[in-house]
Structures are given as structure tokens and as C-alpha cells.
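pasting for ref
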Amino acid sequence: MKIYCISDNIDTNIGLRLVGINGVVIHEKEKVIEEINRVRKKNDIGVLLITRKLAELVPDLIDELKLSAELPLVLEIPDRHVDPEEEPEYITKYVQESIGIKI
């Protein structure tokens, strides 16, 4: 099974590519819906990472995916813009805790 990322940020996409996770950078709601539907049809993708900003554009679709028992498993990840409430290494820690990949 592969991991795939839909991001609104080129830096997030490049960082994940460094650890072998392919993905795409998208900014429009319609494109996000198209890409999610394309990924759902692929049998080799087991985990779909999506940045919070994009997940907020299509909350109903994300909820539907999370509640279904089908693959891919959907994980929302924060982007590079650090919330003052979160610690500096939050992306690394979040990915490590969520999917077990140490980067």
C-alpha cells in the first residue's frame, strides 16, 4: 500500500517526497474533489494525507471518507504555517505519531 498527499503547499509536497510520498499541489475546491475521487479509485493507495486547509474546503467529502470502512484511510495534516499554540516540530511529530514514519 502506498501513501499519497494532496497539499495546497509546494513545501509540504516536497518534504513528503523526500521520504517517498508522492502527491499533488492543488488550490481549487473542484480540483480537490476530482483528485480525491481519482485516488479513491486506485487500489494501491492505502493512506491519503490532505492538508487541513484543503480538507476544510470539502468537509462533507472528508467526513464521508473517514467514516467509511474503505481505503484509503484519510489523515488531515497541518501545513507549514505554524500555529503559535503548536510546537515547532509539530509536522514531524504529527506524521510520526499518525502513520509511524520517522522523518
